[in-house]
Amino acid sequence: MSPRVRIALAAAMVAALAPPAAAEDVGFELRVADHVEVAAGAAGTVSLTVVPTAGRSVSGDGPLRIELSAGDGLTLPRRRYERRDAADPAAEAPRFELRFRGAAPGRHPLRIAVRFWLCREKTCRPAGAERTVTVEVR
Questions:
Q1: Which secondary structure element, helix H or strand E, spans residue 80, and what is its range?
Q2: CA–CA separation, 60 and 121 (whole Å)
Q3: For burial by CB atoms within 10 Å, which of 3, 78, 119, 126 has the most?
């Protein structure tokens, strides 16, 4: 057996024995419902919580912004929220009550875009994510 073949076989064995790669750790989780219901003409809310994973934090000094957009079936009294709009602005995992009103019966998307600074012990980096909540207006 040639040296090249031996090296190739050894590399294949090491690759086969290596544990599978873990999913990428983004450092945070957005907790929000996938689906909510509201009566036509009634006001509704969607609760959104930004939860950092262990060893990370959401910067209290950097901006935290949430932007909402929706189709014709929903009206939004506010399209933008900031950290000061959280239930507890000083919380490690800020929670927001995002408001809307059901304008027309049907299933309508409520798009949520979140941008903030995610920190470790000494450094911070910009982070963000988008989610879509289906709002069923009855």
A1: strand 80-82
A2: 13
A3: 119
Token pair, residue 88, equals 């507890």
Those residues whose C-beta lies under 8 Å from the C-beta of residue 57, and which sit 6 or more positions away, are 92, 118, 119
Residue 119's contacts (CB-CB under 8 Å, 6 or more residues apart) are: 56, 57, 58, 59, 125
What are the pLDDT digits (tens) for 96-126? 999 999 999 999 999 999 999 999 989 999 9
Is 136:72 a contact under the CB 8 Å cutoff?
no
Helix (H/G/I), strand (E/B), else coil: 88: coil
Q: Which of 66, 70, 46, 62 is nearest to 118 (CA)?
A: 62
Mean pLDDT confidence for 10-38: 69
Fold classification of 27-137 (topology level): Immunoglobulin-like (2.60.40)
CA distances from 70 to 61, 67, 76, 105, 133 (A): 29, 10, 8, 14, 10
